[in-house]
Amino acid sequence: MSDECNRVTVLGGGSFGTALASIAADNGFEVRQWLRDPELAAQINREHRNGRYLPDYAINPAVSAYTQLSEALEGSGLVLVAIPSKGFRDVVRQARPWLDPECILVSTTKGIQEEGFKLMSQILEEETGGRHIGVLSGPNLASEVAERQLTATVIASHDPLTRTRVQTALGCDYFRVYASNDRYGVELGGALKNIYAIAAGMAAALGMGENTRSMLMTRALAEMSRFAVAQGANPMTFLGLAGVGDLIVTCSSNLSRNYRVGFALGEGRNLDEAIESLGQVAEGVNTVRLVRDMARQEGVYMPLAEGLYQVLFRDVPARDMARLLMLGEQSSDVEFVLSRENVQRDHRDSGDENG
Ligand SMILES: NC(=O)C1=CN([C@@H]2O[C@H](COP(=O)(O)OP(=O)(O)OC[C@H]3O[C@@H](n4cnc5c(N)ncnc54)[C@H](O)[C@@H]3O)[C@@H](O)[C@H]2O)C=CC1
Ligand SMILES: O=C(CO)COP(=O)(O)O
């Protein structure tokens, strides 16, 4: 990165924003982190610790926290936006007057806006008209990144400058940044996997086994890529870190907030209690509703998303739903090899009405 772009700004004072700020600082950049809470900002500046979201991890002292967007964004060549989807547009709108028109703008948020089914990079584009827009997504549990566990991620952008700048700013010996030009697919992968992490947490709490988890994750991948193809994305992207990679980590780890919400539901708490006890954002709760509605509208077959929706919002017991899903139509394993329509036709031709 050139000298004038030596400053990186992170918008958001949560766990992921804090972890990313620390990486850029480890790489020698001058990092400014913007957050709303003045006490938390003061603690980051004084103790180099984020006591609210990452209490057990040291932050690189080269990260300075600010509560004024004008100060946080001054002279910044790269802006990482780590604000939950509900507040994302609002924050970008507030930031707009202070953004350098040529700065690189990257969303790290794995969610969908209800109005218009917009992904966060689309909001960045709409609100700023910027030319250098990207998405960072992958199997990146914030606390593991903060403790410098070896991790990989994806920077996705149509713009080569955005890809290389982010690789330079964040790539290091514990954080490897792979490039993609399928921004939509990478971003959709990050948002969709949260749905299945809730289901996986629920299955674990219900005592379901490893076979079940493997089935759930693999069928989730089939469902995610089916939806993505219907939306115009490249299904091959789902073979990468932002697809299957993120699905594996989020469906397997108690460190995932979405998994934890599912686990709490599986233990018998209701949705409000599960969200309340988490105290942080679990994007999947909102995403499942939006994706389920979109799938119905577009005629995309998504039995897992539909089933989870029924459990979350229609009080169907999770165990009953799991049994019901097992009795759904016998279908194709990999539908890009043998299509679902072919399997259905084979059943019809053989006179088997259960196909
Ligand atoms: N935590 C993780 O392991 C990872 C999170 N992500 C994504 O990063 C995004 C941000 O998440 P985290 O940092 O984890 O969230 P978090 O729940 O740890 O913190 C969210 C932060 O955003 C702030 N915030 C919320 N609404 C705001 C608004 N309207 N204006 C200003 N600040 C606002 C909160 O005060 C808090 O500082 C999420 O969408 C998540 O999908 C992505 C990869 C890993
Ligand atoms: O996206 C994540 C890991 O890649 C974090 O997932 P949660 O939002 O479920 O914690």
Care to give the gist of this entry?
51% of the residues lie in helices and 14% in strands. The protein is built from 16 helices and twelve strands.
Protein model, in words:
By secondary structure, the chain is of the alpha/beta class. It folds into two domains: 179 residues, Rossmann fold (3-Layer(aba) Sandwich), CATH 3.40.50; 137 residues, N-(1-d-carboxylethyl)-l-norvaline Dehydrogenase, domain 2. Helices cover 51% and strands 14% of the residues. The protein is built from 16 helices and twelve strands. An eight-stranded mixed beta sheet has the order 5-2-1-6-7-10-11-12, sandwiched between helices. Strands 3-4 form a two-stranded antiparallel sheet. It has a two-stranded antiparallel ribbon with strand order 8-9. The longest helix has 23 residues. The termini are far apart. The model has no long low-confidence stretch (mean pLDDT 95). The structure holds 1,4-dihydronicotinamide adenine dinucleotide and 1,3-dihydroxyacetonephosphate. The site of 1,4-dihydronicotinamide adenine dinucleotide has 26 residues, from helix 1 and helix 4.
| Quantity of strands, as a count | 12
Rg from Cα:
21 Å
Bound molecules: 1,4-dihydronicotinamide adenine dinucleotide, 1,3-dihydroxyacetonephosphate
The proportion of residues forming helix, as a percent range, comes to: 40-55%
Termini distance? 57 Å
Number of domain units: 2
Poorly predicted residue ranges: none
Protein structure class: alpha/beta
Mean pLDDT over the full residue set: 95
Helix count equals 16
Q: Into which percentage range does the β-strand content fall?
A: 5-15%
For the record, the CATH architecture of the largest domain stands as 3-Layer(aba) Sandwich
Strand order in space, largest sheet: 5-2-1-6-7-10-11-12
**CATH superfamily descriptor of the largest domain:** NAD(P)-binding Rossmann-like Domain
Shape verdict = globular
Order of helices and strands: EHEHEEEHEHEEEHEHEHEHHHHHHHHH
**What is the highest CATH level, the class of the largest domain?**
Alpha Beta
CATH topology of the largest domain: the name is: Rossmann fold
